[in-house]
Structures are given as C-alpha cells and as structure tokens.
Amino acid sequence: MGGNASKDAISEVFEEDWREIPMSKEQYLDYVKNYQLHHDEIQQLRILLHGPVGAGKSSFINSVDTVLQGRISGRALTDGTFGDSFTTEYRTFKIQKEVQGTFYPFAFTDIMGLEEGTNKGVTVEDIKLAMKGHVNDRYRFNPTAAISDKDSGYNKNPSLNDKVHVLLCVVSAETLSLMKPEASADQRDEMTETMRKMREVRLAARDLGIPQLAVLTKIDEACPVVKEDVGNVYKSTYVKKLIEELSAFLGIPPSYIFPVKNYHWDITPEDVSDRLILSALKQMIDFGGDFVNKHM
Length: 296
Prior knowledge:
It is built from ten helices and six strands, in the order H-H-E-H-E-E-H-E-H-H-E-H-H-H-E-H. It is an alpha/beta fold. Strands 2-3-1-4-5-6 form a six-stranded mixed sheet, with helices on both faces. Strand 2 and strand 3 form a beta hairpin. Helix 2 packs parallel to helix 10 (271-293) and helix 3 crosses helix 10 (271-293). The longest helix has 24 residues, at 185-208. It starts with a helix and ends with a helix.
C-alpha cells in the first residue's frame, strides 16, 4: 500500500466487533465432530475449492485438518512462492477422525488455480465439469484444453457422491490489493480477468443450485492490527472493507464471506484462528447438508 494515508487506513479499528464469532472453539468442535450425514447415496459432502493461484486453497485444507487433529497438518502440498499453480491435479482430501480408519462426513477437493490468459491455470470449463462430477480424482489438468469424455480421467456417469455439494471461493487479501489503483495496470488487468473467470464459475454453480461461500485468506499479512492480534479481525475496518469489495466483485453476500488466518507460519494451533476456520467450516457443512437434503 502506498502513502501514509493508506497505512493509517488499514490500521483503523472499530470500538466494537462488526461481526461476532457465535460459538466457542469447543462448541464448534463438538458440532463438527458429531455431525452426521443422513443420505444413502453420499459418503461425504464434497467441498470444491477454487480461486486464483497463491490464494491459499491447499493451506486452508491443511488448516482445517490442523484444527480437527489438534496438530499442524501438511497433507495438501503447498508452495511458498508465487508463480504457476503448485496444485496440478484434481485431488480430494478426506479428514480422519480420532478412530483409525474413520473419516468426517465431508471432504475437500483441491484444484489447479485460476490465472489470467487462455493457456494458464485451470480452465473454467474444467471447473464446471468438476461441479457436475465428471472429473475423476487424480486427474491432471491441462491448461490448454478442458477434459473431454475421451480422457481416462473423465467420469461419464457421475453419482450424487461424485458431484460438488458446496463451492468454496478462496481469495487472499493480497489478491484484492492488486485490484486497487496503487497496483500496476498489468496487475489490475490480470486480476480483473481472473475475477471474471471466478464470476463465470459462480454463475455456473448457481445454475446447478450449488451453495457458495468464500474465505478471505492472509488477513494477517494485509492488516497490521490483525497481524498484531488475530482477535482484532472483526474490529478491523480494512478487513471489513476487503469483504465488501470481494462481495462486489463476485456477488457473494458479505455474510457468506469468512476471513481466516491459515496455518502458514504458526507451528501450534491458536484459539481465535481455530474459531475463524471452524465458523467457516460449520457454514459449509450446513449449506452442503441443505443441498443434499433436496436430493433425498
């Protein structure tokens, strides 16, 4: 951010929280650990993550796993550099419960990131086909061509269990900063194109009736008061503004956008970060449950 006025603006706080985290960590954990899915055709709610390269999709999956396991997890491979998407496959992650061999009734599917241009990142068509259940696990994406029914990774007859039940848009606070006037024209053009693709995915999900949420990652890197204390997240005027901007770009209501601090630097779980992650997870589970109940 450039200029003293901008630095002052991102450090402003409200006297009171503009949003409450309604439950304690223990209450969230109790809800998630006791959640049961009552549907004969579905073993797990499938939550598909999509968003720009470097948004923190894989890190969010690891962060959920970290909270539920009570220790730092790194099952979804991540990369600390920016550039091409580190995730290249369609990969589903089940989260193991305390009893060996048992899993939570929801799973996260990670995909290649969206990028500007026609030959970079996952294609919008691939995401649309994935939402319909046509992409098999471990399919390696081809940025130059969407999957076809002739590919070995194409699922011609998807079951309800193969289809996506919740679409989760993952965007970092750093990404939104590239949409601002302080960024270069090239950076703004690139992010505008990426946001256009994300909006196209959102509309396709709407047509399929798939519920949608968003998480705003890297809030601690974007806002000094959150970096100082993550408990300030809902006092931060800047985080509130970023959520409003993301809502305007994508059309997702602000109440469906959850700011989170992924476990990237930390090596031990932390209560407020856990509660932010769990509040987003609970909403995903609730929305996914509502969606599949319509198909009973």
